[in-house]
Every structure is written in C-alpha cells, then in structure tokens.
Design brief:
The structure holds 2 protein chains of 2 kinds.
Chain A (H helix, E strand, L loop, with lengths): L4 E14 L2 E14 L3 E5 L6 H8 L8 E9 L2 E2 L5 H7 L4 E4 L13 H13 L3 H14 L5 H4 L9 H13 L5 E5 L7 H18 L2 E6 L2 H7 L2 E6 L2 E7 H6 L4 H8 L6 H5 L32 H5 L4 E4 L2 E4 L5
Parallel strand pairs in A: 3-8, 3-9, 6-7, 7-8
Antiparallel strand pairs in A: 1-2, 1-4, 4-5, 9-10, 10-12, 11-12
Chain B lengths: L1 H28 L4 H6 L5 H11 L5 H13 L13 H36 L4 H15 L2 H15 L11 H31 L2 H8 L4 H29 L3 H6 L5 H10 L3 H29 L7
Helix pairs in contact in B: 1-13, 5-6, 5-8, 5-10, 5-13, 6-8, 7-8, 8-10, 9-10, 10-13, 12-13
The chains are: A alpha/beta, B mainly alpha.
C-alpha cells in the first residue's frame, strides 16, 4: 500500500456458492485508488468489475457470497469491520452510483426523501435541514426547479434526471470515494455527455476519488487517469490511460481496443475489417487451465495452456501475461 | 378522484343487477316449495295455496322477478317469509356481528401474517422460515369446524378461560376470530414472503443499503412499502370473503351473524331473505374492492385514477 492511496484492495477473492458449484467472480484482485484520482475499471460483462465494487461496501448478500482478502480504506480494513462500522462508511465516506437509474431509485418514496435520509443519518441534522440540503444537491446537479422536483416521485423524472438525482444522493455527504458502476450505460449519448461533464465538475468541487466501472473505453479515455483491465475475475493489465491506449500490452486489451470503430481509421491503415476477439467468455464454472484468456488469445504460446501467467511489472505497468516475462 | 369513485359506485349497479338475476332464477330451481315448508307437514292444499298467493309465488316467474326489481328500486328488499320482519331489519340485526368478527379475524391475521412473512423473506430457507411455512400449511389444511371445536374443548371446557359461544363481551370474540384468522393468516404469510423476497432483491434495496441505512429501515421503509400491493390485494379479498359470513365458525360458536342467517333461510326456502342478504354481500364485496383500489393509489404514487 502506498502512502497516498485512499483505497487499497489486496488479493480480493469473492466467491458465490450456488447450486451448480462455487463461482469465483473476483479472483485475487489487487489495486490501489489514490487520493483525488479517477481509476477506470474496464472489462466485458461478467468479468467481476461490479462484484468488486459491491464487495468494497459489502453489499453482496452473504450467503451466497464469500469475500476474502483485505480492503483497506484509509488504512482500515473494511472486511473486518462490524456491520455498524461499515454502515458509518456507506453513503458517507464511500458512496455508490448504479447502472440503472430506472430501477435504483425507490418508486414509492419522493426524490427529496431518498436524498435527505442519507444526509439526516450521517450528518445528524434535522429533517428540515436535511431536506433543504437535498434540494441544494438537486440544484448542484442542475435539476431545474429542484424544490418542486424534490417532492416528486422517481417515475416523473426522465432517465437522465434520475441519474442526476442518483449522483446528488451519492455526493450528498461529500464522500471521499465514489464507486460509479456503469453510470452512463443506460443513458443515451447526449445525456451521457452531460453526466460525464457533471461528474468531472463535481469531482473537482468535492475533491472525491472515483472508481469508474464501465465497459465503455471511450468513457475511460475521457475521465480516468489510470485504468485497470479485468477478465474473468482477474486484473490482466494496469496502466496509465495514455500508455494503455497507445501501447496495450495484454492481448485482451489489444483485442478490446481493436474492436472499437474510429473515424479516420481507413485514412491511416487502409480499408480493414473491424477486428473482434474470437470466441466467448467461458463460464466461471469451467475456467480454462493455464491462462484464462488462452482459448481466445491470438498470440498464444505453449506455456499459456499449462500454467497461470505471472503478474509482470513493466515500466510502472502491470500485466498478467507470459509474453512479457 | 371523486369522479373515479362516483364512476365505480355507479358501475356496481349492473353488477348487482346481474347478481339478482342469477340469484333469483337459481333459487327457484332449487327443489322444494317454500309454501309447503312454511305451512308445515300437516297443512291442507288450501292453506298452501293461500300462502303461495300471499307470497306472490302463484304468478309467472318473470312477473315475480319484475315485482322484485321494482321493489328493489325503492330499496325495499321485502319481508321474511318466516318471521314477517322486513329483510333489511333481519340483516341489520346481524351485520354488526359479522363485521365485528371479520374485522377481528383480519386484524389478527395481519398482525401475525405480515411480520411472519417479512421474517421468512429476510431469512429464507432457515428454521424460522420453515416454521412459519409449516404453520401456514397447518392453518390452511385444518378444517375450520374441527379447529373451532378443539379450541372450545381446550379454552372453554378444560381451562374455562373463555366462553364457548354466543356474544356479549370481548371474551366471546376471541375464539371465533382466532379460528377464522388461522385460515386467512396462511395466505397473508405466504404472499408477504413472496412479495418481500422480490422487493428485497431489487436495485433500490441495494441503493438503500449503500446509503448506510439500518437493515430495519431498509426492510420496513424501502422494501415493505413496495411489497404492500399484493399483500393488500389478498387482505382485501379475504376480508370480502369473511364479510360473506363464516357459516361453519358461526355455527360452532353460536355466533349470530349473516352466515347462519343465510343457511337458515336456505333451509326454510325463505326467498326474500336469501336474495336480500346475498345482494348485500355483493355490495359489500364491491365496496371492499373499491377501497383496496383506492389504497393502491395511496401506496404507489405511480397509480393514479382519473
């Protein structure tokens, strides 16, 4: 753990015991989030990025979930805290934004009530004070006529508005860490841009660190400073955003970047079909032997089939691949 | 809102008309002659003929129905063939008893069933969930008259804590309402459990937890309020059924309610009382449903009536 790291995840392993067997959704993930930075976590559906975020706040139902490892927040291990202690942290020093603004707000409570209950809980203010702070938060996230909107129920707001309300709720207690799990995925492109802009601005104002979980590499490029790539529950590459985009080390990262269409490609590289990563992500119940990416890898060597690759440190980057050994 | 209620109340009229039509003709398909029953075994043909005339049973059936409807339009349900009292008076004398029993039973069932369902949903597949599930199964499978009799044996005869039947004090209502509740509670427990399991797995429940709220607040404020719609539906339906009179329970506990009135009237072929009572059941059932629908809008802001 480095001095300036706010959150340090060490060898996190989250497993689910289900009927068919044991699924290890997060398998030995280690990463640091530094103060004031935005860390991007990228990977396709089911790679364990959301489970990692939910594990941090211990929001997974247990059973079936089992969490091992260490999650140090400000030097204190969140996994060994009592439930009361973790509740002090949830929504207060660490808060979360979810993917689906349509379903993550409670349909039978007003927006104002949902925002102010966290304020009231963590800041020990009266109901009225909490309410006026909630209205203020709605104003900060640029919701028009916030005092009227606060008295309305979620179904009266559009998707973008609801995500703004979600952000207002998450930031209402000025958290030091914000876990944003696919915050723009459910929104259309113009609204996405507005939400990104809003998050960038608020990050500066509130000085919060952000863990941005997404499968959208464009969003990562725009918002994050460092990025962690996950595949089947493991961190396969970690680098600064520029380095990752210019020179991806892991064949999986390479494949991800190759599969993004970009304007002007034809001018530079000639007419070429858009590349894809062959095959499908295997089931977590049938993890391939050796490197988990080897069945889909284009730069396969013999050892990949037999032994799990080591985590290689290279120029301040990390990559989980035999090629760089 | 007011307009909606008015519209719903007006729409009860065709329903009641339908009930009266079915009821009127089905009753007359029953074997047995009301005049004969009323006159007794020893009556002469002449007596029976007189009684028939007096009750208007000698007229063609459609004419009888016409007369019934025109009286109904004037809110006149006729007189009992047995007691000669107005039907409305007969019903009025028993309705409060039935209401009291139904309200007591449904309250008891909710007081036990909703918490039991919540606990089962919060701790699914644990011993406590299985315990409540078995109790629900027990309540639903046990014949009401048998449970009633067993309660009488235990609490009235052996322990002598509570009266075995009749009305008068709060003590009289304990055993019959408990007997009725045992059956209803099973439905309420099960629907509460299912509904709560659903809302507890919703995204907004995770959001609520991520704010640092206590689990109690998450369950009651965030999950239960969303789970209430199906619960209220079941409670409303069961309450409607209870208002329809609980014949067996009323018989076991000699409870002077509508259930017994209707059975006695059927045995005596007392057409006006049967017709009047069932129409009032119909009306009450429709009203309970209206109240349930209005409660939906109160609980869920997405539901609005115009």
């Amino acid at each position: 753990m480095r001095q300036d790291s706010l959150l340090s995840i060490l060898n996190l392993r989250t497993r689910f015991r289900i009927y068919e067997g044991v699924v290890t959704a997060v398998d030995g993930v280690s990463l640091d989030v530094f103060r004031g930075e935005t860390l991007g976590v990228v990977g396709e559906s089911g790679c364990g990025k959301s489970v990692t975020a939910l594990s941090i706040l211990r929001l997974l139902a247990s059973p079936p979930a089992e969490i091992q490892g260490e999650i140090l927040f400000d030097g204190k291990n969140l996994l060994s805290m009592s439930l009361d202690e973790i509740r002090q942290i949830r929504g207060n020093s660490i808060s979360m934004i979810f993917q689906e603004p349509m379903t993550s707000l409670n349909p039978v409570l007003t927006i104002g009530e949902q925002i102010s209950e966290a304020i009231k809980l963590h800041q020990g203010v009266t109901r009225q004070e909490a309410w006026s702070k909630a209205v203020e938060m709605l104003r900060i996230v640029q919701i028009p006529s916030p005092d009227i909107r606060a008295r309305e129920y979620p179904h009266k707001l559009s998707g973008g508005m609801r995500q703004r309300a979600m952000i207002a709720m998450a930031l209402s207690c000025h958290p030091r860490l914000l876990l944003a799990d696919e915050p723009t995925t459910a929104l259309d492109v113009t609204i996405q841009a507005q939400i990104v802009e809003l998050m960038e601005r608020l990050k500066e104002e509130i000085r919060t660190s952000i863990v941005l979980i997404t499968h959208n590499l464009g969003l990562i490029a725009e918002m994050a400073k460092r990025v962690v790539v996950m595949y089947m529950g493991k961190v396969v590459e970690e680098a600064l955003v520029e380095d990752l985009f210019l020179e991806p080390l892991h064949p999986y990262t390479h494949g991800l970047l190759e599969s993004i269409p970009w304007i002007g490609r034809k001018m530079k590289t000639g007419r070429k079909q858009l590349q894809e990563i062959p095959g499908m992500v295997p089931s977590l119940l049938e993890i391939p032997e050796g490197c988990r990416f080897h069945p889909r890898c284009s730069r396969l060597i013999d050892i990949c089939r037999k032994e799990e690759p080591p985590l290689v440190q290279k120029d301040g980057r990390r990559v989980l691949c035999w090629l760089w050994k | 809102m007011f307009q909606y209620i008015l519209k719903r109340l007006l729409s009860t009229l065709p329903v009641l008309l339908g009930i009266s039509l079915l009821l009127f003709f089905m009753l007359r398909m029953l074997p047995g002659d009301p005049a004969q029953v009323l006159a007794g075994q020893m009556a002469s043909q002449e007596d029976i003929k007189n009684i028939r005339q007096q009750l208007g049973l000698d007229k063609p059936i459609f004419v009888q129905y016409g007369i019934f409807l025109s009286r109904l339009a004037k809110l006149d349900l006729g007189r009992s063939a047995r007691t000669q009292n107005p039907v409305i008076k007969e019903v009025w004398a028993r309705l409060p008893n039935t209401m009291l029993l139904a309200v007591a039973a449904i309250t008891l069932a909710c007081l036990f069933g909703i918490p039991a369902g919540i606990i089962s949903a919060v701790r699914p597949y644990t011993w406590i969930d299985y315990l409540f599930t078995s109790m629900a199964l027990f309540g639903i499978s046990m014949p009401v008259f048998w449970l009633g009799l067993m309660l009488v044996v235990i609490f009235s005869i052996i322990l002598q804590w509570l009266p075995a039947g009749g009305t008068g004090s709060w003590k009289h209502i304990v055993l019959p309402s408990f007997t009725l509740a045992a059956f209803v509670v099973a439905f309420i427990t099960r629907i509460t459990r299912a509904s709560m399991i659903e809302t507890l797995s919703q995204d907004y429940t995770t959001t609520a937890r991520s704010k640092g709220l206590k689990e109690r607040v998450v369950i009651i404020k965030h999950a239960l309020k969303n789970a209430l719609i199906p619960i209220i539906t079941v409670v409303g339906l069961q309450f409607g059924l209870l208002l329809g009179g609980a014949v067996l329970t009323e018989t076991v506990f000699a409870w002077p309610g509508l259930g017994r009135l209707i059975v006695d009237s059927i045995l005596a072929r007392d057409y006006p009382v049967i017709q009047g009572t069932i129409l009032i059941f119909g009306l009450l059932y429709i009203l309970v449903n209206l109240v349930v629908d209005l409660l939906y809008a109160y609980i869920d802001p997405r539901i609005r009536y115009a």
